[in-house]
């Protein structure tokens, strides 16, 4: 994924939803909605490739990746309407998991390869030709590393997987001529496939999540500026994940992450798209129902977020006509002195109908296939940061309480945008 500044949108290409084949779809995000593009020509489907935006030529550049077991070395450009392949006299050897950035004057690609032959070569692309860049120093060969540029000639590289060392956490800086390892006082832990972008508003690099050899839940967020890493405290965070699309979305001045491989807590906070910034409201689904039902209900936001002064809406959806209601609560850990989640089998339901939210308030929302629940949020700054939890329930044909089905739960945070 890359931000196309000329057209003011994020461009996402390819990827894979297992077990389906790799995709060659192109999508664009304008800050509000995704729209699929249908170009006359496209690269073949792939994953583990790289995109970056060339601001001088106003093109999104794509290189490498893999399609099935085939490692690719082709170069393509997106002009906002169509993809076109760029055939050059020389090009980097085929590879997956490279890192690629635009440093303000040229596209730079470093490392990648495959598990048997990672590389540490640096290549430059000017729109017409690839040229290998010789440097006095270079990071060891690696893949799964992360790289970003401030657009003023500086490139920052973090982590990755080295064959001799495994997952590592060194920080390297390229000044346009040579690589030098940076030795900050503290640093994110060893990892690969992490998100790394440059935040021009605050003149800092932002790093989030990634994976390591222990499959630990890395949900930490770090900032790099003036030669030092600083861990940031965030109100909330996505579930740990790796290899997703990520870019800085300048029109709204925020980091956007889409997709990726979930590492842990896949049923918690697993919404595929997240934004990082200040003052962001959120509605995050979690804890899918395991209550027996032919058509388990689903609770989701309805194209809205809980911002102050807005009408927030969530839908409780089912494949059958059912009565729906929601419970609202302040806790997801305790209810009436006991722990949550609570198995409602004690009240006569089927096993594993779990109450996940303290029922501090209950609202009946109707009899339908999709029942809306709305909340008018006052335009009051004092509500900023308020956190509430909700869970959906349905009951239909049959005898109560065995006709009761529990939906997933959600947490929503009220904020200004």
TL;DR?
Helices cover 0% and strands 47% of the residues. The chain has 417 residues and is mostly beta strands.
Characterize the structure shown.
The chain is mainly beta. It folds into 2 domains: 2-278, Neuraminidase (6 Propeller), CATH 2.120.10.80; 286-413, S-adenosyl-L-methionine-dependent methyltransferases. The chain is built from no helices and 35 strands. The strands form 10 sheets. Strands 26, 27, 28, 33, 34 and 35 form a 6-stranded antiparallel beta sheet that branches. Strands 1-2-3-4 form a 4-stranded antiparallel beta sheet, with no helix packed on it. It has a 4-stranded antiparallel beta sheet with strand order 5-6-7-8, with no helix packed on it. β34 (387-395) and β35 form a beta hairpin. The radius of gyration is 24 Å and the shape is elongated.
CATH topology of the largest domain: Neuraminidase
Strand residue percentage? over 45%
**Helix/strand/pairing class, anyone?**
mainly beta
- Rounded average pLDDT: 92
Q: What is the name of the CATH class of the largest domain?
A: Mainly Beta
Dominant shape: elongated
Number of helices: 0
Domain unit count: 2
Q: What name goes with the CATH superfamily of the largest domain?
A: Kelch-type beta propeller
- Termini distance? 23 Å
Helical proportion, percent range: under 10%
Can you tell me the residue ranges where pLDDT is under 50 for at least 5 consecutive residues?
none
Q: Please give the CATH architecture of the largest domain.
A: 6 Propeller
Integer-rounded radius of gyration: 24 Å
Main sheet, how many strands, which sense, barrel? Answer: 6 strands, antiparallel
Number of strands: 35
């Amino acid at each position: 994924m890359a931000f196309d500044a000329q057209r003011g949108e994020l461009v996402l290409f390819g990827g894979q939803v297992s077990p389906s084949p790799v995709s060659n779809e192109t999508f664009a995000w304008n800050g509000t909605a995704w729209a699929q593009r249908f170009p006359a020509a496209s690269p073949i489907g792939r994953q583990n490739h790289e995109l970056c935006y060339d601001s001088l030529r106003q093109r999104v550049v794509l290189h490498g990746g893999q399609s099935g077991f085939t490692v690719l070395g082709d170069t393509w450009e997106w002009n906002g309407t169509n993809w076109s392949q760029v055939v050059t006299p020389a090009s980097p050897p085929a590879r997956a998991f490279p890192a690629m950035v635009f440093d303000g004057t040229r596209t730079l690609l470093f490392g990648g390869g495959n598990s048997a032959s990672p590389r540490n070569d640096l290549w430059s692309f000017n729109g017409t030709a690839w040229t290998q860049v010789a440097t006095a120093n270079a990071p060891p060969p690696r893949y799964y590393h992360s790289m970003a540029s401030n657009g003023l000639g500086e490139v920052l590289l973090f982590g990755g997987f080295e064959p001799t060392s495994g997952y590592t956490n060194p920080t390297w800086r390229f000044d346009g001529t040579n690589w030098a390892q940076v030795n900050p006082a503290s640093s994110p832990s060893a990892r690969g496939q992490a998100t790394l972008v440059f935040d021009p508003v605050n003149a800092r690099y932002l790093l989030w999540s990634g994976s390591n050899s222990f499959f630990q839940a890395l949900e930490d967020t770090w900032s790099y500026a003036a030669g030092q890493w600083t861990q940031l405290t965030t109100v909330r965070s996505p579930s740990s994940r790796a290899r997703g699309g990520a870019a800085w979305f300048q029109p709204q001045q925020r980091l956007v992450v889409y997709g990726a491989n979930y590492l842990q807590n896949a049923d918690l906070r697993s919404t595929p798209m997240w934004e990082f910034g200040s003052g962001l409201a959120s509605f995050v689904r979690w804890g899918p129902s395991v209550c027996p039902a032919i058509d388990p209900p689903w609770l989701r936001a309805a194209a809205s977020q809980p911002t102050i002064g807005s009408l927030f809406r969530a839908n409780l959806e089912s494949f059958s006509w059912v009565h729906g209601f929601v419970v609202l609560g302040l806790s997801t850990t305790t209810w009436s002195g006991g722990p949550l989640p609570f198995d409602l089998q004690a009240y006569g339901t089927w096993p594993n109908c779990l109450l996940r939210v303290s029922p501090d308030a209950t609202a009946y929302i109707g009899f339908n296939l999709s029942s809306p629940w709305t909340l008018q949020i006052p335009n009051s700054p004092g509500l900023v940061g308020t956190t509430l939890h909700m869970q959906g329930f349905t009951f239909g044909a049959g005898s109560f309480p065995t006709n009761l089905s529990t939906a997933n739960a959600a947490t929503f945070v009220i904020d200004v945008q």
